[in-house]
Specification:
about 120 residues; mainly alpha
């Protein structure tokens, strides 16, 4: 029996999107004390966990949190890329990956918004 059937997940894409937002939320909250508690890192982490919950429970307000995370992640990644791209390649590559994955998950969640509203 697969984990999707145990958790009553109909779509693997929705499940992957849920896992992505949950992992991002946990990573940002773990990075919060390591980066001297900047509020934007905590906000992105909390909103990502709320979005993961909404995707898992298929709440109709989830698409709004996906949009909020999209703009916050794009702004955060753009600033980090501007600041650290040529200074620290690991941060630059991780911000590019975070930006691309956020865009892909936003596009996927927007295309499946009818599924999330049911």
């Amino acid at each position: 029996m697969s984990i999707e059937s145990k958790l009553n997940i109909e779509s693997k894409g929705i499940f992957v999107t849920f896992i992505y937002y949950a992992i991002v939320g946990v990573v940002f909250l773990v990075l919060l004390p390591l980066s001297n508690f900047p509020p934007h890192v905590g906000i992105i982490g909390i909103f990502s966990l709320i979005t993961a919950y909404g995707i898992f429970r298929k709440r109709n307000w989830t698409i709004w949190f996906v949009i909020i995370i999209f703009f916050a992640a794009t702004t955060f990644s753009a600033y980090m890329l501007y600041s650290y791209l040529l200074k620290d390649y690991i941060i630059g590559i991780s911000m590019i990956a975070y930006l691309i994955l956020t865009w892909v998950s936003t596009i996927y969640a927007a295309s499946k918004r009818k599924t999330l509203e049911s």
